């Protein structure tokens, strides 16, 4: 059965990648090749690919170092029957951070501030999953296989925005928490909370509250510079204020 015309599988897969803070990681047992599954915390790279902070003492890390092929399942954790919620099964390879270590660390700690202590432990390292594809299940007639280009964010030409991201996130959290609250409650329909920014990219803004509830605010059009980002955030806060009762 073909998906309905109003179904945008790429957008849903992107949203799950950005909003997920935990997932089920499947690795291959070193030696036997048997499947092994574990629960991991995660964040997202600016292109949407998953970031992990894992210990070499953990079995899943030892498996990855022997064979980098992995699978990661993310789901919406819907109320009621969990099988009614959307989920993706992402396949790819887990690569240890090298030149992007600072970026991965910053974005991971924005999503998981309590993990700051683990960064100091010598056995912990950052890994990024480079996706080969994903299988999306979002209900009857909504099962789709996607290529990376359909669910990852294209960062080409966005170097200025990426360079400005760290300062933009700090500025929003230090001086514009009221705007974050308006984005969450008026544009995304979320409950009141202490919403803060965890990252931004050409396609949107990521937020979460103290309960680690994560939201994704999609931009109406792509932004590639710090100046364009500022204009977009001002525009969106104006739209949010216009919705205030």
Structural key phrases:
globular, 8 helices, Pnp Oxidase, Chain A, three-stranded antiparallel β-sheet, Split barrel-like, 34% helix, eight-stranded antiparallel β-sheet, 11 strands, 245 residues, 2 domains, alpha+beta
Percent helix range: 25-40%
Looking at the structure, the CATH topology of the largest domain is Pnp Oxidase, Chain A
Shape: globular
Beta percentage is 25-35%
CATH class of the largest domain: Mainly Beta
Number of domains: 2
Largest sheet: 8 strands, antiparallel
Radius of gyration: 18 Å
Reading the helices and strands in chain order gives HEEEEHEEHHEEHHHEEEH
Strand runs, count: 11
Low-confidence stretches: none
Please tell me the overall pLDDT.
Answer: 93
User: Oligomeric state of the chains?
Assistant: single chain
CATH homology superfamily name of the largest domain: Electron Transport, Fmn-binding Protein, Chain A
The secondary structure category is alpha+beta
Model description:
The protein has 245 residues and is α+β, with helices and mostly antiparallel strands. The chain folds into 2 domains: 9-151, Electron Transport, Fmn-binding Protein, Chain A (Pnp Oxidase, Chain A, Roll); 159-242, Split barrel-like (Alpha-Beta Barrel). It has 8 helices and 11 strands. The strands form 2 sheets. Strands 1, 2, 3, 4, 5, 6, 7 and 8 form an 8-stranded antiparallel beta sheet that branches. A hairpin with a 5-residue loop joins strand 3 (43-44) and strand 4. It starts with 8 loop residues before the first helix and ends with a helix. The model has no long low-confidence stretch (mean pLDDT 93).
């Amino acid at each position: 059965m073909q998906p309905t015309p109003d179904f945008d599988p790429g957008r849903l897969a992107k949203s799950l990648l950005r909003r997920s803070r935990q997932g089920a990681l499947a690795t291959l047992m070193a030696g036997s090749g048997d499947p092994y599954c574990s629960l991991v915390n995660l964040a997202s790279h600016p292109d949407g690919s998953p970031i992990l902070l894992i210990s070499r003492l953990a079995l899943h890390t030892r498996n990855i170092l022997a064979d980098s092929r992995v699978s990661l399942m993310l789901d919406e954790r819907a109320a009621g029957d969990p099988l009614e919620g959307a989920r993706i099964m992402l396949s790819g390879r887990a690569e240890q951070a090298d030149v992007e270590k600072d970026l991965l660390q910053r974005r991971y700690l924005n999503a998981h501030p309590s993990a700051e202590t683990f960064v100091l432990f010598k056995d912990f390292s950052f890994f990024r999953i480079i996706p080969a594809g994903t299988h999306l299940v979002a209900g009857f007639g909504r099962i789709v296989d996607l290529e990376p280009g359909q669910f990852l964010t294209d960062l080409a030409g966005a170097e200025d925005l990426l360079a400005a991201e760290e300062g933009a996130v700090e500025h929003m959290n230090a001086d514009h928490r009221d705007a974050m609250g308006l984005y969450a409650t008026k544009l995304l329909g979320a409950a009141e909370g202490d919403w803060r920014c965890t990252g931004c990219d050409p396609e949107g803004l990521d937020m979460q509250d103290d309960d680690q509830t994560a939201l994704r605010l999609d931009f109406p059009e792509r932004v590639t510079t710090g100046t364009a980002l500022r204009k977009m955030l001002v525009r969106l806060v104006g739209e949010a204020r216009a919705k205030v009762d």
